[in-house]
């Protein structure tokens, strides 16, 4: 922290780290200068200075490294070493990935299939910094690696996106803004583009990994399953901006009951009307007062399964599923067909509507609903 303890410290993207490491390696290789730190240009203007953890000259090449500092952002790549090796060759600057940097295996991303997962803006940054050192008419091969990157990538969206073997080198601004909800939300959107590139026009939106697992159990195609985290509304909007035709909301009843209440950012501390919503729909189905009171006294929404089953009103969840679909379709101005399927923690399907049945069948799910 700086002097103001309430101010969160910014950090650097993997793209900035790669560009700085490449520049440091080029400086040592071409000019014999071993730098402790280097200054690089930011894509949106301005400059930053990054520390260089090591420079290792070799025969005809040089290697340099930067330790990723994400500031106060909870970034899984924080502390990872980003390494650049620069080899002089030809007139062009060729950039590729080494160990710990992933390879793209599915279409729909900013990088073509078969290439290293180094996004366009970081590529431009690396090329610009190396070119500044080399001058015109001289080329180089630049290899970016991230020791330990394959293990770290397992904690990211890369496996879902078909990026194998490591992390992605990312960053459109060069600086990591700590705790950026907007950045996290944007990181989810490429899943939609990838599904569209693979030919899917009906998608499954689910808040988390439990829903991804459930979708697999139902026989839904994994390429059409999109994780939304708490950003259900934002992801519905992103679908509506694209040629998506239908969306199946699939998730635990605790999340999707919120959607039935018109809550589209489902983080609990922001909004929570689960008890009230379940109790209201139970009342509409004729639940007696003591049952409504039990629902209002629940510690978790999961308890509603037992309460409603015991009093013979399990179909309340079907009504809630239909309500969630109506609210979601309204949220995107009826630009999408929406169906909803909700399950309990045991995996039991407790509620679904006609839209869920139709969209699920279109996607080829393997399930027989009552």
Explained architecture:
With 370 residues, this protein is of the alpha/beta class. The protein folds into two domains: 11-179, CbiD-like; 182-362, no CATH class. Helix content is 37%, strand content 21%. It contains 14 helices and 18 strands. It has a five-stranded mixed beta sheet with strand order 4-5-6-10-7. Strand 4 and strand 5 form a beta hairpin. Helix 1 runs parallel beside helix 2, helix 9 (253-260) crosses helix 13 (316-331) and helix 10 crosses helix 13 (316-331). The chain is elongated. The termini are far apart. Mean pLDDT is 93; it is low at 1-6.
Shape: elongated
Number of helices: 14
Structural class of the secondary elements? alpha/beta
Helical proportion, percent range: 25-40%
Order of strands in the sheet with the most strands?
4-5-6-10-7
Strand % is: 15-25%
The rounded Rg comes to: 25 Å
Distance from first to last alpha carbon = 57 Å
Q: TL;DR of this structure?
A:
By secondary structure, the chain is an alpha/beta fold.
Features:
single chain, alpha/beta, CbiD-like, disordered N terminus, cobalamin biosynthesis, S-adenosyl-L-methionine, transferase, CbiD
Fold topology:
Blueprint: E1 11-12, H1 14-31, E2 37-41, E3 47-51, E4 54-57, E5 61-67, E6 81-88, E7 93-97, E8 100-101, E9 103-104, H2 120-134, E10 140-145, H3 149-153, H4 158-161, E11 163-164, E12 166-167, E13 175-176, H5 181-188, H6 190-197, E14 202-206, H7 209-217, E15 225-227, H8 232-240, E16 246-252, H9 253-260, H10 274-284, H11 289-296, H12 303-310, H13 316-331, E17 337-343, E18 349-352, H14 354-362
Parallel strand pairs: 7-10, 8-12, 14-15, 14-16, 16-17
Antiparallel strand pairs: 1-13, 2-3, 4-5, 5-6, 6-10, 9-11, 17-18
